[in-house]
Specification:
- The complex is a heterodimer of chains A (288) and B (385).
- In chain A, helix 2 crosses helix 8 and helix 6 packs across helix 8.
- The longest helix of chain A is centred in the first third of the chain and has 31 residues.
- By secondary structure, chain A is mainly alpha-helical.
- Chain A has one domain.
- Chain A has eleven helices and two strands, in the order H-H-H-H-E-E-H-H-H-H-H-H-H.
- Chain B has 385 residues and is of the alpha/beta class.
- Chain B folds into two domains: 195 residues, Response regulator (Rossmann fold, 3-Layer(aba) Sandwich); 146 residues, Rossmann fold.
- A seven-stranded mixed β-sheet of chain B has the order 7-6-8-9-10-14-15, with helices on both faces. A five-stranded parallel β-sheet of chain B has the order 2-1-3-4-5, sandwiched between helices. A three-stranded antiparallel β-sheet of chain B has the order 11-12-13.
- In chain B, helix 6 links the parallel strand 6 and strand 7.
- Chain B starts with a helix and ends in a 17-residue tail after the last strand.
- Classes of the chains: A mainly alpha (288), B alpha/beta (385).
- The interface between A and B is large, with 39 and 38 residues.
Amino acid sequence: MTIFMQSLISGILIGGVYALIGIGMTIIFGVMRVINFAHGDLLMLGMYGTFYLFTLFNIDPFISIVVIIPLMFLYGGFLQKMFINRILGTLPQNQILLTIGLGLVMSNSVMLAFTSDYKILSTSYSSSSFDILGISISTPLLISFAITAVITVALYWFLLKTDTGQAIRATAQDREAAQLMGINVKRMSIIAFGLGASLAGAAGALISPTYYIFPQVGSTFTLKAFVITVLGGMGSIVGATLSGILIGVAESIGGVYFGAGWKEVVVFVLFLLVLLLKPSGLMGKSNV
Amino acid sequence: MFGKIQATALALILALPVAAHAAKVKIGFVNSITGPEAPIGENLTNGVTLALEDLKKKGIDVELVREDDTGKPEKSMAAFEKMATRDKVAGIVGPYSSKCANAIAKLAEKYKTPLLIPVASKEEITRQNLKWTFRLSATTYDYATILLDMATSLGRPKTIAIINENTDFGTSGAKSAKDYAGKKGIRVVAEEAYAPGSPDYRSTLTKIKSKNPDLVFMVSYVADAILLMRQSREIGLTPQAFLGAGAGFATVAFAKERAISNGVFSSTQWTGDVNWPGAKDFNKRYIAKFGKEPTYHAATAYESMMIMAETAAKAGDNREKLRLALKSGSWNGIMGEVKFADYEGYTNQNKHQMLVEQIQNGAHQTVYPPKYVSKKPVYPFPGWK
């Protein structure tokens, strides 16, 4: 029972970060209908940013998101304006190639600048934990889960209550109709990509105290983000939140009861089952 | 017309003395320069760089063809084919990881090009009766045996848990550990193979903790080694000893993480303070040039390149002659005595003496076998700070 609870809680905590990664990708997809294959690389940039803020300026990784989020927002907006906006109406394969290309440029530039060495960010609390009823809870993971929750709630509020948020949702629902209603869809796209990038960057910052950092780290997370996005329903933020946590838990419990090497299998079997029963994803609308 | 002949003659005259001074050999070097294994690959690259310097001093001018396999077997195979056919190299040194080395070992046979594997340790690579594949390093079986020999000489462990990456090196290492533990009368209470690169091993480690093993044996590359130990500390896994099968546990990056690395044992092919000819000097030169300590990977790559280039220079352009010279030759350098022999089902396998090092206060110290000891081993595991 302890083992079950332990893996459940570890899974939920790590799932929170997965959710953050997935939400970023799903916002970008929702507004632009572009699958951002550079998402993991944006996360990697967030990790490097956090790492250098910590080592050079001694800024705590969890505080550094205050710097990382606006920086990544600007960077994401820049990418959208310079590159993504130009290919919005084109064939999907062109969009895929463009985002993959952008990702490669990012990871290889980072490798050129900082070498391929693994960087480990060690804070005083990196491997600290506390016990509740025999279950050990990692302090940094718990903090990052709390921050993830705050960011997610803030994001919901932004999308539901503000004018800009509503304009973004309108653009996601029907780009042409939104444009006819006087919404500047290009601007909304820039904001959406900026948001997606800053969420990826924030996720990078949040896991850097417990994970390791190297230029190619992004590919693992791009795949994960993609699975989360599809599982939750392309474009659905609630879906991405749910499926992020679901995948975290499935990995963790699958790792214990089927062996660590099988956890990916557990995740993908679950993924296939959901898609078989509900092809548009957990929260997806079937006509999208 | 006349001008052309004159020019050719001039070129010949200019070229001849150079050719007479330096023997020129073309060697291929395939390595993980980028990709997840790149931090270890860098050690191999640096080792080869030092080897090229020394070869030049000996009058052997190596034209090195470098290929990056990014840690992927298929890229390794493509690189091998290119070097063997298009670049027409005399012989090939590399690649780093077992999965890549295993993939190209058979290609060496197909293209009749000698392949010298510096450090990839999966046992089976040299157990396939391949005539063109040579290996300098000891195998994963030796990784496991030396660690368990040490553990049983220092304490009385009864149970062992095995955690390994589910790749060629990891699986092979885990299997060897299981076999040898059986022979030593140590019961295997848990076997966990994991997919590398996961941010969370806590559930696996909790499961292992519940079995309360005396020894925890891990086969992992760089980053996962750090993560596994970090999360072991988090959940309070405290066996008599943590045994790391080289790779990630032998790196400087791992040793520097004092909070989690202190007291961890690691098997290794080489250490900077071992008394093999030139080893200490190599260690010093490496630190002076690259600003960090070499791992055993660097030493194996250095020695492999020295052996391959020197032998190739003698054999001329003839690959068959090179193969026979590798087979019959013997060397004594920074890796100790090297001879590629056929024994116990191995072909062209160097019988290399493994060492065990322990991380004490952020530095690797040779602690076993007694003949090579630099510091006394700390056993059992002193507990987490």
